[in-house]
Amino acid sequence: MLPMKLAGEYLVFGENSLEYLTQLQGSQKRALIVIGGESIKKTGYLPKIEAYLKEANFSFDYFTGVEPDPSFYTVQKGAQKLLAFQPDWIIAVGGGSVMDAAKAMWIFYEYPEYKTLADICPPNQIPPLRKKAKMCCIPTTSGSGSEVTRSFVITDTETHIKHGIRGMDLIPDIAILEPGITASVPPAFTAATGMDVLTHALEALVSSRAHIVADALAEKAALDVFEYLPQAYREGSNLEAREKLLLASCFAGMAFTNVSLGIVHSIAHAVGGKFGVPHGLANAIILPFVIEFNSQDIKAKSIYKSFAAKVGAENLADAVRVLNEKLDIPRNLKPVIHQDDYFTAAIPELAELASKDGCTKTNPLIPTVEEFKEIIEQIYFGVKVGSQS
């Protein structure tokens, strides 16, 4: 038996999707809108969101300032705002960081007796939600898929370690995919978030828990990234490409939230937490090296070879590298971090963190800590792992 949950109550997509906000219901008719910085304000879509909420007779307030790779400190501040405002809808408008932070705030709003990040980290379970509020996510980037996933990542404010937290109740009730809202995303960020989608899809395809339904979603997502990401990178206002990527992000999210990910994410979480490398950029650089490592597994190698043929390539790792070149993404981490000695000294710590990451459990091959050290060193300096035919 393979139970699968694809999304919450409604997935709304296509132009003018934001109009769905007029259908929101609530006993208090209050919504807290969670956003990041100034970039969302430049899209011109916040006034539309406000107008639709007013049409639904909602009062609303904002929580602003969610940073990339959100910290627990930000989550605590957001929870305090929720407790003061008492909304029955939390509306996250932003990229993966904003949606992840809003999910975490939601838990602490519903359970104010929780005080620490450890209270919601494994082995603790996420308790039932929706006693006070429901959640609506409006992604402004095509990357995380958080609008349909049961997980989020929060960085410990003191240790800077990223913690992945999961629970089926965390799948948002409504996901609204408005393609125009992503049109103003800058090229470099479009590239990084798009490669995050590709990583989600390809890791889901070779996950040890993969199955036919998730495969269909993941493959479609990955194919569309190869086709449409270079277009969106070159032509930010190309709404067809933007919509295809937004849907690809959603499809990949549906896939990986059910079958999980692999060691690209394990390593990216460790490197991102320690060195502040943006998550999508880290994934993009790490992905081809992990494809080469995983190709030591016969089944994974066959899946990679089959998919590579569908994008007109013989070698998937090389195809990813060519895509990265089109997006001006470096071939290795060294040009991003520029701290050879410090990074080398940190490799044992990074390897330990990656080996303990929850995503490692479903990788087709489970590296030893020593193998993690080798892979991470090669990702930094640009040396290939193994061989692929």
UniProtKB/TrEMBL annotation:
Q: Which PROSITE patterns match?
A: ADH_IRON_1, ADH_IRON_2
Q: Name one Pfam family in it.
A: Fe-ADH
- Could you list this entry's UniProt keywords, alphabetically sorted: Oxidoreductase
Fe-containing alcohol dehydrogenase-like C-terminal domain location: 190-380
Task: Specify the superkingdom.
Answer: Bacteria
Protein name (database record): Iron-containing alcohol dehydrogenase
Species annotation: Neobacillus rhizophilus
Question: What is an example of a GO molecular function annotated in this UniProt entry?
Answer: metal ion binding
